[in-house]
Amino acid sequence: MAEDLVAEIEALEDKLAAAKSAITRRFIGQERVVDLTLASLLCGGHALLIGLPGLGKTRLVETLSTVMGLDGNRVQFTPDLMPADILGSEVLETGADGSRAFKFLPGPIFCQLLMADEINRASPRTQSALLQAMQEKSVTIGGQTRKLDLPFHVLATQNPIEQEGTYPLPEAQLDRFLVQIDVAYPDRKTERDILLATTGVEEAEAPRVFDAETLRAAQHLLRRMPVGDAVVEMILDLVRAFRPGDASAGARVRDTVAWGPGPRAAQALMLTVRARALLQGRLAPAPEDVLDMARPVLVHRMALTFSARARGESLGRLIDEVTADLTRAEAAA
After folding, report:
1. Which of 84, 98, 122, 253 could join 249 in a cystine, given CB atoms 3.0 to 4.6 angstroms apart?
2. DSSP-derived secondary structure letter, 301
3. How far apart are CA 193 and CA 314, in angstroms?
């Protein structure tokens, strides 16, 4: 059984390497962004991509849809968008014999990969329409619950600087995103490669590597990957260290964090460290995977106190400091 599992993991690693190579033909550079997005799909989760306009977020999602063989839809979130515009609605239809009956018209959420573009521009009511779909993979319309196609993933984008006319995502919805992915400016060499690749007559095409069934099998295999006790304990230590009411939280966390990550954060770390190990070509996760995934998994699951915001504190910087302290403590032990 162990030999079979090793063979399956190694085969999946080869397939993931091919998928990553296909994605980077169109989404050049930004290897960290590609890894985190692939990790979220492998874990069966959703991702929130935060970056300025023009950094390729839409291009990345479209390329992922092709490479992973998923049926994708895109919704441009605006202040006047209504829940029915995403979920669908029932209309009264008159038959040829004069009879009338309600007919359900499915919305764009009935797909396998939904791009929620500029999700924070929609009203809280419309944002909340995604909550059931993201957690339960189903939607309830007109008193009837309808299952979504599996796998189902939401990749949402958000502009970090233009906040006029936007509605911050509620904590309950942020917690449903497996990871937050910060899309930064490319370095000079990467930007040069982008210029040469995207301003010619033809652009590179990304071939399909996965399909829906293969991805679901990969998600099941990921959950079978063994995780050592040292990694499990490190995940628990890290998550609990950011809860201001926990005995393991330091004075800096208690003075800076209003509320910390819940059990869903630990679950997300448990899955994403396995995904990172797969993408790195390893058979099991290691402590460095926990440290590497801490920031994208935890940063959107905490909030600063008012005084910490006034001081200009940063959750990302705090996570880096606490993980560095944890690394030193692990080395000393």
Report:
1. 253
2. G
3. 32
183 residue type, one letter: V
Residue found under tokens 């040829």: 96
Write out pLDDT tens, residues 265-304. 999 999 999 999 999 989 889 989 999 999 999 999 988 8
* C-alpha dihedral (79, 81, 83, 85), degrees to nearest 10: -170
At 220-258, the pLDDT tens digits run 999 999 999 999 999 998 999 898 878 777 888 888 888
CA angle 236, 254, 251 (to 5 degrees): 90
Nearest to 174 by CA among 74, 265, 304, 266: 265
**Tokens 């796998």 identify what position?**
151
Q: Are 234 and 290 in contact (CB under 8 A)?
A: yes
End-to-end CA distance of the chain: 34
3-state secondary structure of 2: helix
The pLDDT, as a whole number, for residue 250 is 80
Give ∠ CA 217-150-82 in degrees, rounded to 5.
150
Two tokens, residue 82:
């209504």
Domains of the chain, by residue range, sit at 226-333
pLDDT at 164: 63
pLDDT of amino acid 333: 62
Contact 85/95 with Cβ under 8 angstroms? no
Binning pLDDT at 50, 70 and 90, where does residue 1 land? very low
Q: Reply yes or no: is the peptide bond before residue 151 cis, omega within 30 of 0.
A: yes
What is the C-alpha separation between 129 and 133, in angstroms, rounded? Answer: 8
Sign (positive or negative) of CA dihedral 39, 53, 169, 123: negative
Q: Is the separation of the CB atoms in 224 and 309 below 8 Å?
A: no
**pLDDT of 157-207, one tens digit each?**
988 776 666 778 878 788 889 999 998 888 899 889 888 888 877 777 888
For the domain spanning 226-333, the CATH number is 1.10.8.80
CA distances from 304 to 124, 126, 199, 326 (A): 22, 26, 43, 21
Q: Which two tokens stand for residue 66?
A: 């092709």
